[in-house]
Amino acid sequence: FLSFKNQTYGFVKDKNFMNVKGIHSPNHQFGLLIEKSEIPYKILLTDNKNTKTEIVNDCGGGTLLSYLASTMPNVPVYWIDDQNILYAKYSQSGFTKKNIETTAIIYKINIKTKNSEIITKIDFIAPDTSNSKFLKDPGGEIIFYCEKGKFKIDLENKSAIQLEISSIQNEFSIDYNFNQ
């Protein structure tokens, strides 16, 4: 491993995390896979022994994509911590040639108990040319990116706040108001 902050390096002693498939949990003990063999897709949890456990049996068919998209629909997932994930289920998914809109319902799932709860809904999302995704911004906030814009996901208040402007570090910001 290499730490730029501390200017140190060392060797990884436990290589079990390399056996975990999919999107790794923060502690590298688990991974998430999207099973796309049929619609609705499923979310599978994997471990370092390659054991697969279904944690969501209907996560939709991924982001609603326009016919101009050069990728296949995917389900956005995000590890909140070692036990909880977020995923977005679209009310309509796949590819479209019409001017239809969809709703993204954002769920929180506990991987141990498989309990789920709706965090928020984002309505009137038009077809996109790329898949939506979750990322953490430099301030540590979870951001959901979709065709409609950037949304801060507030887990405590179970809401999504559309961002008009956001910090990108070093005292720079980006304005997302495209209508001016």
Q: How does this model look, in words?
A:
The protein contains no helices and 18 strands. A hairpin with a 2-residue loop joins strand 14 (about 140-145) and strand 15 (about 150-155). A four-stranded antiparallel sheet has the order 3-4-5-6, with no helix packed on it. Strands 8-9-11-12 form a four-stranded antiparallel sheet, with no helix packed on it. Strands 13-14-15-16 form a four-stranded antiparallel sheet, with no helix packed on it. Helix content is about 0%, strand content about 45%. With about 180 residues, it is mainly beta.
Short descriptors:
180 residues, mainly beta, four-stranded antiparallel beta sheet, 0% helix, globular
The number of helical segments is: 0
Described by strand count, sense and barrel closure, the largest sheet is: 4 strands, antiparallel
Helix content: under 10%
Choose one word for the global shape.
globular
Order of strands, main sheet, comes to 3-4-5-6
| N/C terminus separation | 46 Å
Radius of gyration: 18 Å
Structural class: mainly beta
**Unreliable residue stretches:** none
**Count of distinct strands:** 18
Mean pLDDT: 86
| SSE series | EEEEEEEEEEEEEEEEEE
Beta-strand proportion: over 45%
